Amino acid sequence: MIRDLPSPNHDARPEGIPIDMLVLHYTGMRSGQEAIDRLRDPAAKVSSHYVVEEDGTIFRLVPEDRRAAHAGISHWRGHEALNARSIGIEIVNPGHEWGYRPFPALQMAAVCDLCVDILGRHPIPPRNVVAHSDIAPDRKEDPGELFDWEGLARNGVGLWSDADPPPPDAEAVLPLLGAIGYRTDLKLPVLVTAFQRHWMPGRADGIADAPTRARIAAVADLCRN
C-alpha cells in the first residue's frame, strides 16, 4: 500500500522526452520524517516521486507524470539534467554522514516491489536503473556500497553480472565506463568508486585493480546488449 504525502516541488515534464530512467537515492538524513519534511518544504525546492521507509512503508510525494527535483546536475549515457526523464526513489537511510548502515530486508523488499511496478508502467531499460552516485559521481555517494543491487537485479530490476572475463588493460577502463553510461571527463578514481558502489558490494576504494577492471568489462558488455 502506498500513502500519499504530496510535495509542492514539481513541475511539468518537457514534451518529447520519455521517462526512461529510474534513479535510486538514500535520504542521508537523521530520520525518515526529517527527510520527508524537507522533500515537502517549498523552500527546499527538492523532491522525489517516492520515499521508502525502513519498515517498508512507501510514500508517494510526486505523481510519476510530473518532474520531481531529485537528480540535480546529472549525466548518464549522453543525457544531462536527468530530472526530465527519470523517476526518483528516496530510500530512508542516514547515509555516510549520519551513520550509514545496511538496508533492512523489509525496506529492500518494498523497494523491489515498487521498482517492478514502475518498470511495468514505463519503458526503462535495465541499464538505466541507476544510483544517484552513478549519475553524479563527483558529488554523490548514495545509495552506497551497502545497497543490495544484486538482489534487485535478480528480481528484474537493473543489471548485474557475476562474469569474470579477463581484465582489460588499464587504458581501456575509461572507454568501458563510458560505454556503461558514466561521463568520462571526471578523474578515473571518482568513476571507479561510483562503479564499485553499484557493482562490487561493500567496496568503494577507487582502485582499478584486475577484479575491478574485469567487472567493468562484464557490465559494459551487458550495457551493449
Automatic annotation (TrEMBL):
Q: Which UniProt keywords apply?
A: Cell wall biogenesis/degradation, Hydrolase
* Matches recorded under SMART domains: Ami_2 (SM00644)
Which ranges carry the N-acetylmuramoyl-L-alanine amidase domain?
7-144
Q: Pfam families recorded for this chain?
A: Amidase_2 (PF01510)
Catalytic activity reported: Hydrolyzes the link between N-acetylmuramoyl residues and L-amino acid residues in certain cell-wall glycopeptides
Q: Per the similarity annotation, which family is this? A: Belongs to the N-acetylmuramoyl-L-alanine amidase 2 family.
Q: What is this protein called?
A: N-acetylmuramoyl-L-alanine amidase
Natural source organism: Roseomonas alba
**Which taxonomic lineage does the organism of this UniProt entry have?**
Bacteria, Pseudomonadati, Pseudomonadota, Alphaproteobacteria, Acetobacterales
